[in-house]
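User: Can you help me understand a structure? I only have the sequence.
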Amino acid sequence: MSVTLADVRAAAEVIRGGIVHTPTLLSKTLSAVTGAAEVWVKFENLQFTASFKDRGALVKLSRLGADEKKRGVLAVSAGNHAQGVAYHAQRAGIPCTVVMPETTPYAKVRQTKSFGARVLLHGQTLADAEPHAKEIAARDQLTLIHPYDDDAIIAGQGTVALEMLAAAPDLDVLVIPVGGGGLIAGCAVAAKGLKPDIAIVGVETAVYPSLYQTLRGLPHKVGGNTIAEGIAVKSVGKRPLEAAQHLLSEVLLVGESEIEQAMCLYLDIEKTVAEGAGAAALAGLLAHPQHFAGKRVGLVLSGGNIDSRLLSQVINRGLVRSGRIVSLRIDIQDVPGTLARIAAVIGETGGNIIEVRHQRLFIDIPAKAAELDLMVETRDPESARDMITRITAAGFTVHVLGTASGSD
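Assistant: Let's start by predicting it. Here is the structure, written out as tokens:
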């Protein structure tokens, strides 16, 4: 691996004063939830562009020559790298072009444009956008700023680990999201250089397990929908892969429900917003608690850029998973007062009806009958079960359409 601890330390000097020195804080509640002895969180969502990408972008741009800065730079990114490059290019007066997939969340597109970048949308994935970006870079003589397969970028991202170990020197393991691998490569170099016995664990989404497959010699198969689009990368960079082969202890895979659960936990417990990729490290603890029992764990919350509509959907899905929201279909006689009787029972158990609909026109329902669809907010799963029991005892047939066990 060509990047060294000295390179990371030099990068730390370059970014000093140019990025946010984000906090590394002990979370007693997450420690209890996950079974780890201690869980420390590095809040990189508090960077100005809401992700760790500020670090590598600033280091790389600082190393460009005068002619390169004058001609301008180009980045290809699903969002966070784009924002980091655009923001620091704007600060340095460097023209910036960004190529993003057409599927990039609008919040990231809007924010990137706000930093003065020319944004071009192309293709459905990063893999589709990259060839187009290279054509533009060659045509316009722009310097391509790679999001992860670059020594300067890797050194800049490694400053995350320097700050974590300065704040919590007794950590046993760092858990880091893996997309292209720049963050985990830099952090592994820094952490292992400072503390050779520390373990470095990567976390990938199960539908993009590029590093997991490569390290195990498995067939390369990636692709699918994921809320963690920031780490939905088809292949890890050559430089990060070299670091991973020598410095990583393990790569873990997580599913969509675990990522969403981690996002909700960050919101509920730490009162902070994590995008899907940003919550992947915590999802790794939730999915594989046996790896971290009794250990002092450092998590990188790598970013917080998420569309508000998508975040609200994740929150509601979390409420369903936890049994806080249930969807019921109740067979009723279509006579006055029936809804009031059912509502009274729900109210007695502390339930709150948030949506109601009568189904009267289905031809398989008798003319004097109806189906009542209710969405109900409850205190907890136990009160939801009590509510259903009471409605049934009142003489109604209840069909549970959505609960914690049936939401996915």
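Now, to help you interpret it: The chain is about 45% helix and 20% strand. The chain has three domains: 5-51+151-317, 54-145, 322-402. Let me know which part you'd like to focus on.
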